[in-house]
Amino acid sequence: QVQLVQSGGGSVQAGGSLKLSCSYSGHYAKYCLAWFRQAPGKEREAVAAIDSDGRATYPPSTQGRFTISQDYAKNVLYLQMNSLRSEDTAMYHCAAEGGYCSGAFHRPSEYTYWGQGTQVTVSS
Question: How many angstroms separate the Cα of 118 from the Cα of each of 21, 51, 53, 89, 100?
């Protein structure tokens, strides 16, 4: 059983930065952790993923602006978001699944465990 508890988020002006955190427990020896977001009326989309060996993957929409990382000692997953845009406004969720991240890391159906979500609002 894996539990994910998120913190962080909030409101920021365009061009600003925010950092999200996700504390996880009960993880697998090998795992994939990811951040997703969902804006009203849109599908949930992946913004970053990282596996237990520290290999990170990003979609083109966030590459170079977002950084995913983890603190192995504290069992915390982070998402540093820079150069935020109004289109980054969404509810952000962390997710976890056993095994390394696959080529399908961007699919919500690949993940069994989810955080409660935290709102990020970027004003222009």
Answer: 10, 22, 26, 11, 25
